[in-house]
Write a structure and sequence with these properties.
By secondary structure, the chain is α/β, with parallel strands linked by helices. It has helices spanning 10-23, 111-131, 153-159, 215-223, 236-243, 250-253, 284-294, 326-333, 350-366, and strands at 38-42, 45-49, 63-65, 97-104, 137-143, 208-209, 263-269, 302-308, 339-343. It has 9 helices and 9 strands. A 7-stranded mixed sheet has the order 3-9-8-7-4-5-6, sandwiched between helices. A two-stranded antiparallel sheet has the order 1-2. Helix 2 packs antiparallel against helix 4 (215-223). The chain is globular, with a radius of gyration of 20 Å. It starts with 9 loop residues before the first helix and ends in a 5-residue tail after the last helix.
């Protein structure tokens, strides 16, 4: 997972190529290929999925309720999560729509975590569909944490064709519209360990909806954003804020995603903290306010889920595998019972997302759509 990173240079590209040639990572045009691959339908195209859903940590996933300031882990299997369940909500009309925003770190140490997310999503969306009986209208958008990956690839692919470098790019390649905009939804992940295919959203937009053929497989395509990010440090919160802003060009790119009469569920995953000292934009308060503003002042219409390093907590699973993330944890905790965080190093994220369903369901029950 987390490894100290130097700034990207031409020298590092050669190093990456050498490493890829040795370990085989990133040599395929798409991770949807290879020995033992299973068939997955993405949009209207069938591709093969060779990824595994193995994690980095040992033992069960770690989840912590943001309302539990002691950092005690939730006993999900025991059922005493402290979370409200279906039917615990208020007497309001409830939500009929949910907007899901996923922010996925695409730095070099995130391959297994992206695989875990992809593997956990089918059970998660199935639980959402069965639990939120009156809310079957979804928008789902995936972001990575930088703009166009390896902006020099249109040159490198011509002059320095090296194994494992600039995977998914061709000579003279230029970013498509919105592809080089921080916070714009991902539709065609490119680079080493990315899907490297057009995920074919049936909406024709930069997000999926509940009518998407094979929604789970299409999400898996989008969530594999790859490991070629050149941004250091990672800035998932900046990507989140930009994605929901009303400023061009990102508002044009993501037009139609955010709906006033839907609750907003934000999920972010990264193995580094979003550090102010390293040039990241914003503060915990400003990140929170950006989400509230996006929901027209209704802080009860937002659920925040975070997966990040946990070595500063009891019973940690990362054990040096991810950077501790006090700012990200503070951000999740600021949402009280509508915030939930877990360990990015968990062997899988199934229990984390299944627990999150209760929080989403309660938020949906209590939601009062604007008149």
């Amino acid at each position: 997972m987390y490894r100290p990173r130097a700034s990207t240079s031409l020298f590092s590209l050669f190093a990456l190529a050498s490493s890829s040639a040795c370990n085989g990572a990133g040599n395929d045009d798409s991770i949807y290929s290879g020995e033992g691959a299973s068939s997955v339908t993405v949009g209207n195209d069938e591709v093969s999925d060779s990824s595994s859903a193995s994690g980095d940590g040992d033992g069960d996933p770690t989840m912590t309720s943001s309302s539990d300031e002691s950092g005690i882990k939730l006993d999900v299997l025991g059922g005493e999560t402290g979370m409200m369940t279906a039917g615990d909500g208020g007497d309001s009309s409830g939500c009929k729509k949910v907007d899901f925003l996923f922010i996925v770190d695409n730095s070099g140490s995130m391959l297994e975590e992206q695989d875990n997310l992809a593997a956990s999503f089918p059970a998660f969306i199935n639980s959402i569909q069965s639990t939120l009986a009156d809310a079957q209208d979804y928008h789902i958008m995936v972001l990575d944490t930088d703009a166009w990956v390896f902006a020099g690839c249109q040159i490198i692919a011509c002059a320095l064709p090296l194994p494992g470098v600039c995977v998914g790019y061709t000579c003279g390649d230029q970013p498509a519209q919105c592809e080089n905009v921080v916070g714009a939804g991902v539709t065609w992940p490119k680079g080493a360990n990315a899907s490297n295919v057009n995920c074919n959203f049936s909406t024709g937009l930069r997000f999926m909806d509940s009518a998407q053929p094979n929604l789970a497989g299409t999400f898996q395509c989008a969530a594999r954003v790859g490991t070629d990010s050149t941004d250091d440090p990672e800035r998932p919160m900046e990507a989140m804020v930009q994605a929901l802003s009303n400023q061009n060009p990102v508002s044009t790119c993501n037009g139609g995603f955010l709906r006033d009469d839907a609750i907003l569920v934000v999920t972010f995953m990264t193995d580094e903290d979003d550090d102010a000292g390293d040039g990241s934009a914003g503060t915990v308060d400003s990140w929170r306010q950006a989400l509230i503003d996006a929901k027209n002042g209704d802080d009860q219409a937002v659920v925040v889920l975070g997966l990040f390093g946990d070595d500063d907590l009891p019973n940690a699973t990362c054990n040096g595998g991810a950077e501790v993330s006090p700012r990200l944890r503070q951000f999740v905790e600021s949402w009280g019972p509508k915030g939930l965080f877990g360990s990015i190093c968990a062997s899988d994220y199934d229990d984390f997302f299944q627990t999150a369903v209760d929080t989403i369901d309660t938020t949906c029950d209590e939601f009062e759509p604007p008149k």
